[in-house]
Amino acid sequence: MGNRWWVCVAIFGVVALGVTSVQAATGEAPARVPVPGGGYTNVTSPLLRQMLAQKDFYFVNVHIPYEGEIARTDAHIPYDQVEKLVQQFPARKDAKILLYCQSGRMSDIAARTLVRLGYTNLWHLKGGMIEWRQQGYPLLDLPKK
Predict the structure, then answer these.
(1) What distance in Å separates the CA atoms of residue 64 and residue 61, rounded to the nearest whole number?
(2) Per residue in 9-67, pLDDT tens?
(3) What is the DSSP letter of 87?
(4) In this structure, are residues 89 and 57 in contact, taking their beta carbons and an 8 Å threshold?
(5) C-beta neighbour count of 38 within 10 angstroms
(6) How far apart are CA 120 and CA 92, in angstroms?
(7) Would you call 138 exposed, middle or buried from its count of C-beta atoms within 10 A (0-12, 13-18, 19+)?
(8) Strand 122-125 and strand 38-43: pairing?
(9) Which of these, 40, 42, 43, 85, is most buried using a 10 Å CB contact count?
(10) Per residue in 109-120, is it b (16+ CB within 10 Å) or e — as a string?
(11) Which pTM was predicted?
């Protein structure tokens, strides 16, 4: 019991440190979304744009069908294949992973799946590529990776 408590404290500290550093850099506080088994952190398009300037996360487009992507995307993993293709995500369960899709619905499902699989440092683009474009940020229209 004692060891589990310390592991939980350590994981919370890593997530809190990441959220605090993003807030300090942008002046914007990301919103934590609790889900069964843990949670993930919502970010806005302006916040993501700033985070991409000093990218320290695995960036995944989970939208299907493929409809373009945000620059610096690391992978395209369909939201409904996340569990089957989990080996394409970082092996470390505390690795910082940021998910997005067209509207936010598919990436929410993918985030919940990864939480269930034990991932603890998940981030999610609220509003997806629709919100990203509404903010005036570009999308890359590349062939599917």
Answers:
(1) 9
(2) 444 444 444 544 444 444 567 899 999 999 999 999 999 999 999 999 999 999 999 99
(3) G
(4) no
(5) 19
(6) 10
(7) exposed
(8) parallel
(9) 40
(10) bbbbbbbeeebb
(11) 0.79
